Every structure is written in C-alpha cells, then in structure tokens.
What does this fold into?
Amino acid sequence: MSQDYNNPAFKKLLKKLQEESWQLELLISGFAIFGLFSAYDPLKVAIIEATNDGIIHQAIIAQVAWFSCIILLFNLLLHVLLRGLWIGALGLRYVSGDIDYEELNYSLKFTTYLKKKVGSFDRYIGRLENYCSIIFAVSFLLIFYVLALTFTILVMVLTIEYIVTNENLPEWIRNFLGIPLIIFVVLGLLLTFIDFVSQGWLKKKQWLSKIYFPFYLVFSTITLSFLYRPIVYNFLDNKFGKRLSLILFPIFILVIIMTSLNHNFSNYFNERNSSTNYIASDNNYEDLVLTNEELFIDDAAIQSKIISGTYVKVYVKFSESIEDNIFEFNEGLKPEKDIRGITSDIKIGFNHASNNSGNSRKRLDSLRTDYLRTFNKVYSVEIDTLKFVSDFVVNKNALGFETYLPTEALSSGKHVLSVKYKTIKEKDTLEKNIISIIFWYYPN
It folds into this structure.
C-alpha cells in the first residue's frame, strides 16, 4: 500500500479515514487519559524511589516518563474538551442551522461587528475541527521532542564520562577527541534548538544552512527525528499549525513550571527539611515507611517514633559513598575491577558465583568479613551522649546494615539517636554526622 500512495483509490481511502478519524481520536484519548491518570502517581513514586536509592538511570527514565505523562494529559484533556464542543456544535447546527443575525435584531453596530468577528457557524465548526485534529497530532509529536532532548543530554553525559574524564584513556585522546566532541554536541544542541524555536530559520539562510547541515545530519539520528520529520514539516507548511506550535511551546514550559510549584507555610521549615536533633522526618521510621508508599528511608531509620520495648533497631541504608569511604580506610578491599553499576542477570558459561571454587568462596567470605569489620570501625551510633559499640550486620534484602541497641540505660522521654562516620580529609581523620533521629522512649 505504501507504494500506491499516488493511486486514486488510496487517496479516496485516506479522505474517508480523515472524515471518520474523530471517532478513533476520542477512543484513543479516552483510553490514554485513563491510563495516564493511573500511571501519574506511580511514576512520581518511582522518581522518588530511584533518586533516594541513587539509581540515576532509573530516575532519568521515570522523570522522562512523568514529563511525557504531563504533556499527554494536558493535550488529550484539551482535545477531548474541544472535540466535545465540536460534537455539541454539530448537534446544534442540525437543530438551528447557521447563525441568523437578522433574527437577533441587534443594532447595526453590533450586527456588523459580530458578522465580522463571529462570522458563519460553519466556519466556527471548521475551526474547531482543525484545532482538535492538530492538537491530537501534536500530542504524540511532543513526546518525541522530550525524547530528543533526553537523548541529546545523554550523549553529552556519556561523552564526558567515558571520554573526557575517563582516566583509563591516554590524555591526548581525552583532549583531542573528547573536548571537540563536547563542543560539537553543545553547539549542535544550541543550533538545533534555535532552528526548532524559529521554525526552520537556519535552513532558510544560504550560508547558515551550509554550516548547520552537518549538525542537522548528526542530530537527526541522535534525536530520532527521522521517525517524525514528515509530521513536523506538515505542521510548518500550514499557517494554523505554525501558530499553534508557537503557542504550545511556552504553554508546556508553563505547565512544567506549575507542576514544580509548592506552597511554603513557614519561613524556616518545610517538608523538604532533613531529620536533625530538632526536626523529625517520617522517612526515618520503618513503621511509617511501610504504611506510606511515597515514603522511603532516608540514610538511616529506626523501627518507630515511640519505643516501648527493650531495644532500638538501627538500619543504615547502603550507598556507593559508604563503600567508597570503606575503601579509604581499607585499600585492600578495593577491587581491581569495579563491578558496581548496571549489570545483567544473564550469565554465559559457568563463571559465576554458584560455580566458584571452594578457595574463591573462602576468599570472598574473608573479604566480606573484613568489609563488615571496617564498616563497624568507621560507622558508629550514639543515643544522646551515650556511644555504643558498633556491631552492624548486613541486611541483604533491604540492602544495608542493621544493629540492635539496648534501651535499659535510657530514661523515659525524648532522645536523639545519631549515626556518625569517620572520613579522611587531607590525611586527617574527621568524624561527621550522617543523620540524627528523634524518638521517645516509654517502657511498658
């Protein structure tokens, strides 16, 4: 069929599909809006969780999906509203026909003005149809714009990480390959953005178009524009489409800004404050985290705000910075090849943990014991001024470290538990506070 696009029968089919497309538009919009509302809150939770866990790639994917969700919701809700107005106008036209200005019996001044500004009712219906069709089409086009920006930033980050700052590469490669690549990507991003906002101005100037053309070829691949380029040019050759494109860009910037707005009730405190010896945060109490899916443990946690039993459970969430700090105090634990980061569960051959030799397993167990011993030397817990001997073990399910402290020496009332760690700065060992958690002890 794609090769028969000049066939009259194919053009007739396209015309018929265009006339009946509003039904498909409403059907798709309805299902999409339902799905997007269902996905909105889980995506926000996914962003918080990934950011809290320090998994950057998951946070970026969730953030892009959330922005796309906002854009589609705004566009499709607007589309359904206008399409509903269009259907209502069609029904009214069937009953009442066109606008009869003579029947309104207004003064000559108002009749002349309304005929000029309002015009024919059929023209109004036609304009509504144009708005609905273009808004529906541009809804999904804007998602590709979000992906284009994401992929461009990703190329910049990967270039910096794997070439410019990669110490495994010779310095001359980093300087003579990495820096020109970064300059090319940044300049290409700037030119592509200018061309996008100006609706192709760089392509219209003879000398500028020659400079821009190499950037255009490269960024066509990076931004995946080869997938949606025909739709873009179909918008730009239409005056109505061009006007709408100019209006939509600032509208979506405004929508994104509005979604980031918060209301501050105080000049000194807000919900983003971290836990201290005078601020209690729900993120540091396991019972509250378990009952609220939008809460995640922040650095460390205890079992509850109110302790009535014979112990306090202390959980320290694992992070890469903890492991880096342990390597500072025990260089023998630092592996030759760092395997942290994205990995696959697919194993080729038999070279994995379950098939390691007995000597390898013993060596790994020895290193893990040394790792935990170093952690207990570096990290410590205090309640008020009472310091406890560190005896943390690893919790493999919620990856982190946990220990249990007796409460027999505590008096009834408020207490502050502090998790501290040692760090090396300019060959000096300093002790710093990770977090302070307030709790109340009232024995049964």
